[in-house]
Amino acid sequence: MPSRKSSIKVGFIGYGTVASGAINILRSQQELIARRLGTRIDIARVADLDIKRDRGIALDKGLLTTDAMDIVKDPEIDIVVELIGGTDHAKGFILDAIAQGKHVVTANKALVAAYGEALFAAASEKGVDIGFEASVCGGIPIIRAIKEGLAAEQINSIYGIVNGTCNYILTKMLEENRDFSEVLKEAQALGFAEADPSLDIGGGDSAHKLAILASLAFGTPVSLEDIYTEGVEKISPVDIAFADDFGYHIKLLAISKRIGDEIEARVHPTMISNDTLLSNVGGVFNAVYIDSEALGSTLYYGQGAGSLPTGSAVVSDLIDIARNIRSGSPGRVPPAAFVPAARKPLRIKPMEEIESLYYLRFMVKDQPGVLSKISGILGAHGISISSVIQQGRKAVGVVPLVMMSHRAKERDLQLALSEIDRLEYVSGATLLIRVEGEDEE
């Protein structure tokens, strides 16, 4: 039945960067939100372990508590917003809130990626909504686009620049010909990278987001363990320059494709043609490219992090759930985009089975016969070469030999590289970057 509540009451668990942004928006845009919703959204309580630190928000101190259960158990609160991060405590608070019949909003990508299935099931059983728009790409409404805007679409593939830290680093390396470590330090100084950046630069953050996007797009559970994940630490200015010579930019991409009853789900540095919109997304911005059956190609671009952009996504979920409360229609849109009975497990194709074009950089001794020997090994494994760049002689005696392959299977290429990297005139492991695009006939 439609609700006649004079206002929707919200409680926040966590009072950090994202919560501050969401609270700022709720307060500054209160009139606009009420005009669109038909009622007010009121902040009932805010819980945080530190309630004394100044957040620059004139919030009534009587609303603050250090006990999250004050919010979970408050019968007046309609929606609980979890913004503490992590998984164990956050999962417990959300499940407790759902058990109390409360709707939930979270920005917690790690939690949704790891425990989304359990959270969705609990919400469906209890007849409440769970919103997680802010868990992927900050302020870009990509989750709502997949769940609602593209509801009639058979999605074929997703390519996402979903980590601003890596995109900033790769952009600076391209524009200024600087080393990875140097740009990373700059990103940390500017607040674009964490003191421990391993989750970002190692690809883990992108993998969490891809698990969520792929699950929604293809109607299947996607486990983090099944997502091949590779970071950007090994990319050098040399590779970025060679990529540019071939007409490509290097991006850390989260990629998922559906091929029949299988899907690919992988995160790794990828070369994409420099005349595409996605390749020209720079700095800390995020973008997600989706190819679907009827609509074709669409691109979703914007700020992927930050207090106000991510806070905006939290508030959009609050408004959406508040509309459902007022109309008496919780669960109107299934949390996982498909009704539970219609979701089915699809095989995640192992990385060794995927096919791609490849960029290969060998560091070799500058001597006759090296190119023919390496080409011979690749050919013996069914890998043909489309382009070669071999730098002139250098006094140091070790030079880069760069090749672009035609489409090949990952397993075959890895077998070839394991043989090549043992050659006495090859120095170190070959650098491999996968290339998205059409094979040249």
Using the CA coordinates, give the radius of gyration: 24 Å
Q: β content, as a range?
A: 25-35%
The count of domains is 3
User: Could you list the spans in which at least 5 consecutive residues all have pLDDT below 50?
Assistant: none
CATH class (first level) name of the largest domain = Alpha Beta
- Approximate helicity band: 25-40%
Biggest sheet character: 12 strands, mixed
Indicate the overall shape: elongated
Annotation field: number of helices: 14
The CATH topology of the largest domain comes to Rossmann fold
Structural class: alpha/beta
Secondary structure blueprint with pairings:
Elements: E1 7-13, H1 17-28, H2 30-37, E2 40-47, E3 64-65, H3 69-72, E4 79-82, H4 88-99, E5 103-106, H5 109-126, E6 130-131, H6 142-149, E7 155-161, H7 164-176, H8 180-189, H9 198-201, H10 204-218, E8 228-229, H11 237-246, E9 248-259, E10 262-273, E11 285-292, E12 296-303, H12 307-327, E13 347-348, E14 355-365, H13 370-380, E15 385-390, E16 398-405, E17 408-409, H14 410-420, E18 431-436
Parallel strand pairs: 1-2, 1-4, 2-3, 4-5, 5-6, 8-10, 10-13, 10-18
Antiparallel strand pairs: 7-9, 7-11, 9-10, 11-12, 14-16, 14-17, 14-18, 15-16
Helix pairs in contact: 1-12, 4-5, 5-10, 7-8, 13-14
Mind explaining what this structure looks like?
With 441 residues, the protein is of the alpha/beta class. The chain has 3 domains: 7-139 and 307-342, Rossmann fold (3-Layer(aba) Sandwich), CATH 3.40.50; 148-303, 2-Layer Sandwich (Dihydrodipicolinate Reductase, domain 2); 351-436, Alpha-Beta Plaits. It has helices at residues 17-28, 30-37, 69-72, 88-99, 109-126, 142-149, 164-176, 180-189, 198-201, 204-218, 237-246, 307-327, 370-380, 410-420, and strands spanning 7-13, 40-47, 64-65, 79-82, 103-106, 130-131, 155-161, 228-229, 248-259, 262-273, 285-292, 296-303, 347-348, 355-365, 385-390, 398-405, 408-409, 431-436. The strands form 2 sheets. Strands 7, 8, 9, 10, 11, 12, 13, 14, 15, 16, 17 and 18 form a 12-stranded mixed beta sheet that branches. It has a 6-stranded parallel beta sheet with strand order 3-2-1-4-5-6, sandwiched between helices. Strand 4, helix 4 (88-99) and strand 5 (103-106) form a beta-alpha-beta unit. Helix 1 crosses helix 12, helix 4 runs parallel beside helix 5 and helix 13 packs antiparallel against helix 14. The chain is elongated, with a radius of gyration of 24 Å. It starts with 6 loop residues before the first strand and ends in a 5-residue tail after the last strand. The mean pLDDT is 95.
